[in-house]
Every structure is written in C-alpha cells, then in structure tokens.
Fold:
Amino acid sequence: MADTEIVRKPKAKPRVERPKLYKVILLNDDFTPRDFVVTVLCSVFRMTEDEASLVMLAAHRQGACVVAVYTREVAEMKAEEATDAGRSWGYPLAFTIERED
Ligand code: TYC
Structure:
C-alpha cells in the first residue's frame, strides 16, 4: 500500500440564500369604486372575480388586505402597475409592499 494519504478538502457546502419575499397590500380609500378595485385585482394579480371580491371587501372592512406575496422586484412592479391603473382613472387606489417576516 502506498504510504501517501489522500486528504480530501472538505466540500464547500453551497449556500443558496432563499429570496426574501414581499407582500403586496391593498389599502382602502373612500373614493375608488368597488367594481374598479375588483377589475384591477383580476387583471394585475390574475385573480378570479370571486377571489378579487373577497380581497376587496377585506380591505374595505379592515382598511388593508394582503393581495399576494412575491420576490421584491415582482412585488414592486405589481404594486406600481395596480396603483397606476387607479391613477389613470383619477382614483386614489393604492398598493404598498412590505417585507414578509
Ligand atoms: N371603500 C371603497 C368604496 O366604498 C371601495 C374600496 C375597497 C376601495 C377596497 C379601495 O382597497 C379598496 N367605494
């Protein structure tokens, strides 16, 4: 047997960070028509009308409601697109994003 010993380097464990997730939150206001909120939720967040109605009503009653959770770039884009849709009709409809714990 050879008297040399093969010493293996310990394999570096690949450290893959899990991407941080962000909630898109719908805020209530007194002016945006309910049907318009539902339409925006359906088109931007690909919800069914039933799902969108539930989210709209939750925001209407509680003041705010989580719509969906995405990585940061996607959450920012969706919140901006949905807020812009309201603004283009003169409504104060607002979506914000918040880091998930
Ligand atoms: N509160 C609005 C109204 O009574 C409807 C509404 C619901 C607006 C949810 C925004 O996030 C919202 N017309």
Notes: The pocket of L-tyrosinamide is lined by residues 26-30, 32-34, 37, 56, 59-60, 93 (CB under 6 Å). The first strand starts at residue 21 and ends at 27. The helical segments are 34-45, 49-62, 72-88.
